[in-house]
Amino acid sequence: xxxxxSSSSSSMQQFLILARSVHGAATVDLVKKVIEYPDIFNFExxxxxENIDELQKYEEYVPVYxxxxxxxxxxxxxxxxxxxxxxxxxxxxxxxxxxxxVASLAVRSRTISYSIxxxxxxxxxxxxxxxxxxxxxxxxxxxxxxxxxNNHLDIEYxxxxxxxxxxxxxxxxxxxDNWCQNCLQILTELKQQTLxxxxxxxxxxxxxxxxxxxxxxxQKQIKLDNNENILSTLLSNNRRGDGMTQExxxxxxx
Length: 254
Hints:
With 254 residues, the chain is of the alpha+beta class. It has 2 domains: 2-163, no CATH class; 165-254. Helix content is 69%, strand content 8%. The chain has 10 helices and 4 strands, in the order βαααααααβααββα. It has helices at residues 10-19, 25-36, 44-47, 50-53, 62-73, 76-81, 91-108, 114-121, 126-138, 165-253, and strands spanning 2-4, 111-113, 142-147, 152-159. Strands 1, 2, 3 and 4 form a 4-stranded mixed β-sheet that branches. The longest helix has 89 residues, at 165-253. The radius of gyration is 45 Å and the shape is rod-shaped. Pfam families: CSN7_HB_subdom (PF22061), CSN7a_helixI (PF18392), PCI (PF01399).
């Protein structure tokens, strides 16, 4: 799946400019407009603004801040399971959150079954689901194909959602920790392999020395045997020569 980074729209830039000068109830109205706005799908820039961050300091505005977080990082089922945490959403805002949920699901899997989509989006009919998917394709949130025969959605690419910086750092720490553990394991295995290689090398040297000594011993034995054979042959020839000489001498006397 190709995940396309979604750049800030010109519409969001306008809201960011407005957010610098609004406070209190005016900030609440701005947040409501942003989450309903058709072509805005990333909200982290707005969340990071000082005026928006101040909403957390006032109990009456905390649900507004949580709602903006929901649109930045959450999915529709988060809203359905804990509605008291958020402000009441308009029909347009609910639709937007469903579209964002499709993007989140698309990141996780190249193929999404209708049953999963119906459950996550809390939609009752396949017709409504397909209308929502077509809308997501129209807004370029995803690109894909409806497989009506097999009841699933094939994803080609999707926009990227905002990533909670806290989760990002936790994830980064986890990735680095896993990397360190893998490095340690590899280092341990390399040490073990090096030790085994050195042991094999040492054993090979010992066996080679034994072979050299055995070869030298055999060569000496062969040389000794050859010398003994030569000496034996010479002695045998000498005896034979002496015998022939004596025989000739006896013949002359006779």
